[in-house]
Design brief:
Largest sheet: 2 strands, antiparallel
CATH superfamily: Aminoglycoside phosphotransferase (APH), C-terminal lobe
Number of domains: 1
Strand order of the largest sheet: 1-2
Radius of gyration: 19 Å
Shape: globular
Structural class: alpha+beta
Strand content: 5-15%
Order of helices and strands: EEHHHEEEEHHHH
Distance between the termini: 63 Å
Helix content: 40-55%
CATH architecture: Alpha-Beta Complex
CATH topology: Aminoglycoside 3'-phosphotransferase, Chain: A, domain 2
Oligomer: single chain
Number of strands: 6
């Protein structure tokens, strides 16, 4: 019987493979207080990691490039293209200029990336790690979770939520997007973004 490989990073030629410990998932609702506590612990641990990572503005730049590329987003109307470009630019500057401390972030700690396991709550899918204010991470979590996270700048959180909505809306208009029901969501989220920016 072959031995199981230990968790770690393995490099072979141009390939890098990471192996993780498997935990049997537990199906249960996650209380917002537990979610907020798990994210707070994750952030505390990530503050101790010195790792070269992208900045959150790099992800915004990717969305801006997509909006500007008519070939990749052929179904965007001119008005919606101008609206998305302006929203991404304005909110990128607002979040960047907030003056809040920045640190290593998960990047997308939404409920789909949080597992309930026998040893507690664990976050997965760290390929979106980036640097930025904690509010950028909290923008991906449910409202009630952010309400329980200590020291949040709620004005900045609102900007981050709107920025995140602008980015995911942009990705739904990519001609190569394979997100299920992506076109319908692109239309729906454009409408929601219009309401969010009108407040």
């Amino acid at each position: 019987m072959a031995a199981l490989a230990a968790p770690g990073v393995f490099v072979w030629d141009d390939y890098v493979v990471t192996l993780w410990t498997y935990y049997e998932p537990v199906t249960q609702a996650i209380p917002p207080a537990d979610y907020a506590s798990a994210l707070e612990r994750l952030h505390a641990g990530m503050r101790r990691v010195n790792l070269l990572t992208p900045h959150f503005t790099d992800r915004v730049s990717e969305a801006q490039t997509l909006v500007a590329d008519h070939d990749r987003t052929p179904n965007l109307t001119d008005a919606d293209r101008v609206f998305l470009a302006g929203t991404l630019d304005r909110l990128r500057r607002a979040v960047s200029d907030s003056g809040r401390p920045e640190q290593l972030l998960h990047g997308e700690p939404h409920p789909g990336n949080l597992l309930s396991t026998p040893i507690g709550l664990l976050f997965i899918d760290f390929e979106t790690c980036c640097r930025g204010p904690i509010e950028f991470d909290l923008a991906h979590a449910p409202d009630e979770v952010a309400d329980l996270y200590p020291g949040v700048d709620h004005h900045l959180l609102r900007d981050c939520r709107t920025l995140m909505l602008a980015m995911i809306t942009t990705w739904r208009w990519d001609r190569d997007d394979q997100f299920p029901d992506g076109h319908r969501l692109g239309i729906q989220w454009l409408s929601e973004l219009g309401k969010a920016t009108a407040r």
